Amino acid sequence: MRGGEVIYRHAEPVMGTVVSIEVRPHGAPMTLTRSAVAAACATLHRADDVFSLYRPDTPLARLRRGEIALEDCPPEVTEVIGLCERARTASDGWFDPWSLPDGFDPTGLVKGWAAREAARGLQAAGLGAGMVNAAGDIATFGTPAEWDAWRIGIRSPESPERLACVIELEGAIATSGCYERGPHIWDVRAEAPARAGVASASVCGPDLALADALATGLVAAGDGGLETVRAAGYEALLVLENGQTVTTPGFPALAAV
Amino acid sequence: MKRAPIVLTSTAFGVVALVGYHAAGPHASALAGASTGSLKVSGSTSQTGTGSAGARSASATSTPAAPPTTAAPAGASATRSAVGSDMQYPFGDLAVKVTVRGSRLVDVTVVRHNVTDPQSAMIDQYAMPLLRTQALSAQSARINGVSGASYTSAAYQQSLQSALDKLKA
Fold first, then answer.
1. Is the ipTM above a cut-off of 0.90?
2. Which residue has the higher pLDDT, B147 or B2?
3. Which CATH class is domain A8-247?
4. Beta carbons within 8 Å of B144's beta carbon, 6+ residues apart
5. Nearest Cβ partner of A18 from B21, B61, B155?
6. Closest approach of chain A CAs to the CA of B169, in angstroms?
7. What confidence tier does B168 reach under pLDDT thresholds 50, 70, 90?
8. What's the pLDDT tens digit per position in B59-88?
9. Please, what's the b/e burial string for B125-157 (b: 16 or more CB within 10 A of its CB; e: otherwise)?
């Protein structure tokens, strides 16, 4: 029954944005679907409560000020720090939350990690397929009935209403760029705001936390970082400020880029 | 009175698809200048975890709790409208009103829009008409979602979706 399957959608304001969740229950009862989505939302709020730097009282904010030690923090903090170390290695140092001007800041990875955890919870609950879209960082599992994979458009840096391309996604995709929030990505090697001529960087692969970190690093690294992304088992698309696009060979673009 | 369900292209196409993204569009240049400006967000303008009235869920099969705000007599060409939830985004909040004739989306207007930052207000003056055009013209978009940060349009999409949910019955 292509295109006719039950879809359950939810929009949750959290983490300073709106996270949208789409679930294909594939026969799971609606009560289970609702409770699984509620649990996914709780996961997102929990991540915000632990890692937000916009609120002074979160464990991460207090850890950064030296008010508490790592062992006083919830276990997620240790987990995220471990992921940051993996991401720093995988990105060949282009993603380095320890080398930022205002001190350790893992938020380049936290939104992706939180969405990934939410998606994993939905899958573990027994739902057939689903997608968690945290303001453009997307974690998926399963496949929608209408296609063989999730079809995701990548926003053009020039305009929110245009697409740079459409991809067939398995797993996750994260996009970083300066077009929406101004120049906010720090080049840890140059010790200056990123100036590699990158308008946006999209990275797809199995783990949204790592994809998020690699995309952040790629904005600073530019096309010289594509080989690093590929070596980590991920694929990438760069839209340069001059309008050109560059991809790794396996980037799953459907439409011409 | 049983109303015909509003089917927008297919139950399988999502809220993002509904608002619509094209691989190319005639209006790109108008927004390009606005959206590539230095749109800075400081900590004070970002609203972390502030739940608006907007968090609504929707199911393709569920019956929504809220009735439409207006209802014309039933029939294939009945015109109905509903106001969506007020959605927050890091630069403010907005709510949209949708008008549907039969099963077709015929108009989208922004009925509430508060912006916390003057520069965002300027950008939104460009963005809102464009979002409306896209919502109306893209009922056949063929994607599940969009990757890339776009706070305003996310809030717009969610309010639009909640308005449409009110009309599904």
1. no
2. B147
3. alpha beta
4. A22, A131, A144, A150, A151, A152, B13, B14, B16, B17
5. B155
6. 15
7. low
8. 222 223 333 333 334 445 688 888 888 877
9. ebbbebbbbbbbebbebbbbbbbbbbbbbbbbb
